[in-house]
Design goal:
alpha/beta; 21 helices; about 575 residues; six-stranded mixed β-sheet; Radical SAM protein
Length: about 575
């Protein structure tokens, strides 16, 4: 039997599977298939493999040619089963991969005869931009193109379908006990990931469902409680054994990201704000580090700021555990969404602005010091959602003033994620969709996005990564319009623009020389001042255009002569970064 898994990439409130991330769904699917049919040949293909193959065949220019492209058509022609995994619920901007939608993959797989199965969060639809409402068209298309649309857990359906197809239930959920084997067996699919082993971050699941939603219901727009009606915490030993399997295969970058709140792992239910369990979190991360001692990235994702603000002692213990066992550059995304208390009440949001402020302050105190890779150890991110029911002009201003307070008070936030709400079926917002007025507020949204980017993001970024900081292990990922764009491996890594062409898919240490609104400019170090272009020379701190001209005229220069030509205040920064 031949099975083709097509990864269309997933992005949802509690999980990410867009490269360099390898999400949970392809791994679990692979494991279920191999447990059901050990002899099966299972091929992992990405949507970029299909784009490169079929768009290339049609004469359409594509930059996504991959090593798999010559055999993609052959695999699909021979496949007995074709599994497509997709679903984009929290659309964002991606550096080197673009998630697919059902219309696209349907066009590619239409000629092939294998049984077609759709899995992942795609059954609820996908949105490539905020401010939209999912229509019945995409959902109807899924039912017309695929022989089976899986509404429950894909891995459970695949195992049943391949062992006893008549009893396969597309709505069945699996337990963590059932998942254990799928996760460990499925680890080996990582070897088929295009950028394995150096440039893959594996997303690890620890929990599903929303603890806050179990107490008072979920946020109006969120698909997590709409998909999972209860909260289930994955046993520590199951997480550890999966990490060990991946680590033994060569994976060195992990994000414990598939959960709604890492501070609520194995927490005690308590209405709106569960009571955190620091012992369980410490045991989890100590266990991971015991089987992955030389891990290069160990990060997390989401956290509910209300938990941290209401239980500061327990939360400080958890934060310290994340620092002790994790790696620098770690970010916990806080779902504030809107600072207007009226909007918060109407949409049942996670936390108040005051709770979020206290949580930001606590994490700054515990995790604000700079780590060995140039980034602070552990900082918050802030998620903002525009277009929610109940918003007024005052709501936008209150949210802006909240962010300005963070800036004015000297606090650091790694990133501010602004998106427009998407209305998905099954969420409370679906029943309030007539109250979503993104078009009405279009000018307000544009104005405040601009205002936040210019007045908050830019000075915040300068505080976070001052000129002269050296970021370690920046992967050069994309070349576009005269710049190399790179980033560190991790949770919400900063985009670094490198103003020179260097080989891609290598790691560089980079001296930060300038700031944009959401990205920074850096020069690989050590810097050879006798070979650098005028463009790069003038960006070196303490140089500028005039000194760059003088340096060019006097080259070759010794290291000592060069340092005498720069401003005295930056000589200390540059002295170990210059080579002749």
């Amino acid at each position: 039997m031949i099975v083709a898994i097509i990864d269309g990439y997933t992005d949802e409130p509690a999980g990410l599977g867009v490269p360099p991330y390898l999400g949970i769904y392809p791994r679990y699917a692979y494991g279920a298939i191999k447990k059901a049919r050990k002899e099966a040949s299972v091929f992992y293909l990405t949507i970029d493999d299909l784009r490169a193959t079929f768009e290339g065949e049609n004469g359409i220019a594509t930059k996504n040619k991959t090593p798999n492209f010559p055999k993609t058509r052959e695999i699909l022609e021979k496949a007995d089963v074709i599994v497509y995994i997709g679903g984009l619920h929290t659309p964002g901007k991606y550096l080197s991969a673009v998630p697919s939608q059902i219309e696209e993959v349907a066009r590619f797989i239409k000629p092939f005869k294998g049984v077609r199965i759709l899995g992942g969060p795609a059954f609820m639809g996908s949105a490539h931009a905020g401010g939209t409402k999912i229509t019945s068209h995409e959902l109807s298309l899924a039912r017309s193109v695929f022989d089976h649309v899986v509404y429950g857990d894909l891995e459970a359906f695949l195992f049943d379908f391949l062992t006893n197809p008549k009893d396969a239930d597309p709505f069945r959920s699996r337990s963590y006990n059932e998942l254990r084997d799928y996760a460990v067996i499925g680890a080996e699919v990582v070897k088929q990931f295009p950028d394995f082993p150096d440039f893959v971050i594996v997303e690890i699941e620890t929990q599903r469902g929303c603890p806050k939603a179990m107490g008072i219901g979920g946020c109006s727009f969120c698909t997590e409680p709409a998909r999972y009606k209860t909260v289930e915490d994955r046993p520590v030993e199951d997480v550890v054994v999966e990490v060990k399997a991946l680590y033994d295969l060569g994976v060195r970058h992990f994000r414990v990201g598939r959960q709604s709140c890492i501070f609520s792992y194995m927490a005690k239910p308590n209405g709106r704000v569960p009571v955190p369990n620091p012992e369980a979190v410490e045991r989890l991360f100590a266990g991971i580090r015991s089987v992955a001692p030389d891990v290069k990235t160990l990060h997390v994702d989401n956290a509910n700021p209300a938990v941290i603000a209401n239980y500061p002692e327990e939360s400080v213990r958890i934060a310290k555990a994340l620092i002790k066992y994790g790696t620098p550059g770690n970010v916990v995304a806080f779902g504030l969404e809107n600072a207007d208390p009226k909007v918060a009440r109407l949409n049942n949001l996670n936390a108040t602005a005051e709770e979020t402020y206290e949580a930001v302050k606590i994490l700054n105190e515990v995790g604000g010091r700079r780590g060995y890779n140039g980034m602070p150890w552990l900082l918050p991110g802030i998620n903002i959602v525009f277009g929610l029911p109940g918003e007024t002009k005052e709501s936008y201003e209150l949210t802006f003033q909240f962010l300005k307070r963070l800036l004015d008070d000297g606090l650091m936030v790694r990133r501010i994620n602004i998106r427009q709400v998407v209305v998905f079926p099954g969420t409370p917002l679906w029943h309030m969709r007539d109250k979503v007025k993104t078009e009405k507020h279009k000018r307000l949204i544009q104005h405040y996005k601009y205002k936040i980017r210019h007045e908050i993001d830019l000075p915040m970024l300068r505080r976070l990564i001052p000129v002269g900081t050296v970021l370690r292990d920046v992967r050069a990922e994309v070349f576009d319009n005269g710049l190399i764009y790179g980033r560190q491996m991790g949770s919400y890594p900063l985009i670094v623009g490198i103003p020179k062409e260097v080989p891609l898919n290598r790691f560089y240490d980079v001296l930060i020389v300038d700031h944009g609104f959401r990205s920074i400019t850096g020069i690989p170090v050590p810097i050879n001042v006798n070979r650098e272009s005028p463009r790069v020379l003038q960006l070196i701190p303490g140089i500028g255009k005039k000194r760059a001209v003088k340096i060019l005229a006097k080259r070759p220069l010794s290291r000592e002569t060069f340092l005498e030509m720069v401003d005295p205040e930056v000589r200390g920064v540059l002295k170990d970064l210059i080579e002749e």
